[in-house]
């Protein structure tokens, strides 16, 4: 036992004596060798590194000799257990630190054999004391050295100018500072600046203006300066600015906005000398000061209460530069304090000056003919109000404010509650103790990381120091512990984890401080929405908010992706180093050493090797045993508890404190935001008001449906109904003959090993998918349970095409059937005379039956099934379960319950319904194409023409494909013969629906293959890999369906032989055609069954689907080709495709050639591709393939927004899932009318000709490129707009099944 204790103590001594920075053996990048040690200093010289290595070896030798003496002593006499235990307990392993070189390693060794046991114990005590003294001395020296290096290296404030003349002036002014105030120097500098600029402005880079597009290093520099100012490290920002300015190559990265940002920081502090330094650098760089530069200088003068002469000269120079004094107060964003100091300075020179009043809300109104009615003043308009009183809404506002100020929210998990056994309680206690240790370790690691990054910043490099200071250490530690808690058992990609952590810091970096002012304004805003208040004049929420004089929220520059990932990677490494646990948790009999909780390993995913952070299995088991029932979400990832702020600009709206962008895009991308900001504000009113209207819809949870779902979820799930099964139901590794360990046996053939590997991979894939689905359902159901009995709101924003989405990712109405069934309107409406009929029609629509029947037939069918409907509502889990057979079972069940309540009400017309009824477009993409081309044939197929019965384009395409199949079958095409009876609407629907959105033949083939495998007669095996009954591999020609031998010859292996290699499968069609006709009797294969042709059949069917669409929608295909060719030529000119939607939203496609970004060091080097770098050339393939579907998406979003705004004007509740519109049952008829009218108005505009004119003006009007061959071809293409047919759009207004 003493040996065991000594072993632990020796290990502790080893850790204590090991120096802080000795480099070990160089491991491969990302290997575990250096993952868990402290962060090494990269500044040690080679000599110092060798010296540290020698010290480490010497200390290790001393420990080994002590171990030898201990064993010798034990051979003579046994040390009393209690005595040794006491001394070894005292000899705890201190924190790892450095050590002095041992000078007397053998001191005290003589005479040890006289009295072995007592002398050994004394030696142990003396060694411990000596080690402690050495450690303390070394730590003191290292601390002094670090402090000395940190403070001796002063931050540089004086600029190092490249112009000798300016450098001489600066030196002269510095020497003459007592006689020449800095204010006068600044005035002289401003006077001389224009003369220098007049000769150098032409040579200045074009991207040096304040509107320059910051890419790469420029964007990173700007975010660095911004974070320095936010965290109070202005001298550091100035130091980095000076460092970059002093080097000509780095100076090119600096823009006027960066100089202005640092100047503004010094102005706020009243530091005029440092501000003048920045002006010197500004002049040295050849940049002209703008309004923001002058505002900083004058504000600083105001704070210092300087004389009027200097201020007067500054104002005179500003006027000579062509800048207006009033612009300082109207064009420069200033706080109230900054505005007051600026005004004080100006009034010293101009006592009678009166600043212009704050700009009144712009009277500009959107002039689009599509929105003329929306913004026409009409006192009779009655906008809808909420059902809540002003007091209730104010209370909800306070709740939401607390949530956002806390940045996170914790909810109870809906997982099954475990029994509180001793094992569970012990696991929870252990976890609590570990988390306490981890907090301490994380604090220490964060401080050390900050010190290291601060040192790099003081050397003038762009380090992560200011980013690490954005959040308090308490917030960072809490965030990292939450990340550790949520890490899945199979681990997570380090790149993904770094990206998520970096984004979380960015989102939390700045909460607005104007809480009191926000509270006052929001209370006034609620008068427009509350049920018990009135406003003077009815108006839209945005108009009312702007009338309150709300200041515009400051626009936040996005961080470049490299910064986000690098910051997240640094935090992930901090977590890896700090999170350790006793090894006894993994192996009860192991010594009580500390082992990492997280391991960095490599794994192959999609043929790529990636680094993964994986939790220790013992930690995962501890979490499972503890079964803690809490989940933590970001405040922006959950629905809001009060109405969102109205959208008033591209970066202001939705959440109360958390910044949100109107147009979502990949982090680091600015092109969309720049387009929106350059767009006249009035042009965006339609989109802003539509997003506000969608977000103002109040929701509540359908409690009865939630209870039924939770009952299944806490049991074993029900995948057939969309309730994922728990991990316990996931497939286990094979056993018996298929067990993985059999791969090690010599008698197992390579073919059997390959089969075992495939089976194991398949089961692991299924298990991962089940776990992912389970986690998604857990989040959704936990949030639903948390929000039960509450009213909540879903703020919206949009993607770059204009399509709208809720900001809450886990719980919204855009999810699956189950997600939609959990939601209903918080505000109810009486059914009225026709509401019950619409509920019945909606129920039949959800079943998927009667799709080609009239509305009356669907109502009659619902009446016939009323007994099943009521049985489903009353006994959903024990009755006849009719609802389970529907296409959308959970929504059908919710509708059954609503119908049952309505028909049992004393007066169904007075029954208040909260249930949303849907009206879905009939293949909406094809509807837009048919309307664009005025295609009468296509219009009839997608219900643009009135008809007694609905036309089903999917059934028509399936019928046309069946005609082609029958013809091929008669000609002996075997795959056509096998497909007899299997071509249905369901098989072709997804492909037909997505063809207009740019799906390729490859993607269409995968869709059809998936549908075929869902058919019972097509088993879940790959047809091309399926052995025939004799055990041979069969293959077929995808073009003809003929059964042929594979190109590598007819294998003669038995059942279980490995399938053909993956590399060969891609060459089947060509190789198979070569061996056609070479089959002899010896190679004859038996007649294949249908499952042998899944792969071939999907190839055959996707070709026939495309051929059918070509025949049925000829106008559609011509428009698609025109859009594709236009995009291809635009891309060849070096530009990304841009256009403006009919509602005025500017669109640009973010498809550029990938630029590789590498972040070196740490656990591993991370490399990722970025396709949003606008400095890269456009990706021609993505630009041309993406333009047709993206353009159609922008049209369907315009139609949805028009419908939303007009429904809001009529007092309706309206939400949408793209081309599926929702409202109360009583209002379906009104919504249908609005929907048709706005579709006709939208397509009455010359959309294609407007697009042609815009593209010509945008890409063909520059005289510098007019002679380019690509521009010439583009001009010819854009002028040849596809001709339209004769379809009359007015007929859409009378089409019953246009949306139904």
TrEMBL record:
Source taxon at top rank: Eukaryota
Region feature (Disordered): 13-51, 92-141
The reaction(s) this protein catalyses: RNA(n) + a ribonucleoside 5'-triphosphate = RNA(n+1) + diphosphate
SUPFAM superfamilies: DNA/RNA polymerases (SSF56672)
Ranges annotated as biased composition (Low complexity): 92-116
Classification via SMART domains: RPOL_N (SM01311)
Official protein name in the record: DNA-directed RNA polymerase
Originating species: Delphinapterus leucas (Beluga whale)
Gene name tied to this protein: POLRMT
